[in-house]
Amino acid sequence: MIEQLSNYFSVETIYLWLNISIIPFWFVLIFFPQSKICTIFVASIFPITILSGTYFYLIYFFFISGYEFLSNFNLYLSVENLKSLFQQDGFILLFWIHFISINLFCGGWVVRDSSKYLVSKYLIILPLIMIYFIGPLGIFLYWLIRIFYAKKIALYD
Fold first, then answer.
1. Backbone phi, then psi, for 70, in 5-degree steps?
2. Is pLDDT at 157 greater than 70 in this prediction?
């Protein structure tokens, strides 16, 4: 059964499905941040569980395919090692799941935090779009907006 799954779920297919399936989550985060659907399905552990399952499947698939996981730690040694890792489809796909999971988690946090401080849902649209594309800058923009609603500058929560 695992072999049949691996024949269907190639690296390209998984990449395509990841990119298509993440869009509804962001759509709900941006346009319906205070809805029950957003609370239950998007700003919860639900999407992270799905992405973690995909990550686990890929680790298993790459493990049985002979992928050398220990070489991933070479990325900390030089930019050249990082470049060579990004030439491998397996590493790129694992990195991409990592990237979209963290961005979605941050988007969910922004929605939950904005409702806590009663930030207008219209003011968080731009930070959420920025988090989707360029994560840290969107979080920084939200932090600037949050300062005015929380009426304090906090370096940690």
1. -65, -25
2. no
